[in-house]
Design goal:
With about 90 residues, this protein is an all-alpha fold. Helices cover about 80% and strands about 0% of the residues. The protein is built from four helices and no strands.
Length: about 90
């Protein structure tokens, strides 16, 4: 069974991390350490890889097998467009 709350939580975490990354970039001053930016970017990267893999392995196959024509077609479109993206990050 797909745990949508996990996917939603990953979306929220990614959005929060992306905002934190933008804040760090905005606050960066030449000559200062960029390590906090790099660490935040790595955190965001990790969440995105896990999230995309979760979609590929658990979400899209269930939606494509749902028997609902429009749902299956939309899921297939997402697989065609973004499927396997987690492996390429």
């Amino acid at each position: 069974m797909i745990k949508l709350d996990i996917l939603r939580g990953q979306h929220e975490a990614a959005l929060d991390m992306a905002q934190r990354l933008l804040d760090l970039i905005d606050g960066y001053r030449p000559g200062s350490s960029a390590t906090p930016i790099l660490l935040q970017l790595n955190r965001l990267y990790g969440v995105l890889r896990v999230h995309l893999a979760h979609e590929d392995v658990e979400l899209y196959p269930v939606l494509m097998a749902s028997g609902e024509r429009n749902v299956a077609r939309t899921a297939q479109h997402y697989v065609d467009e973004m499927g396997g993206l987690a492996l390429n990050l």
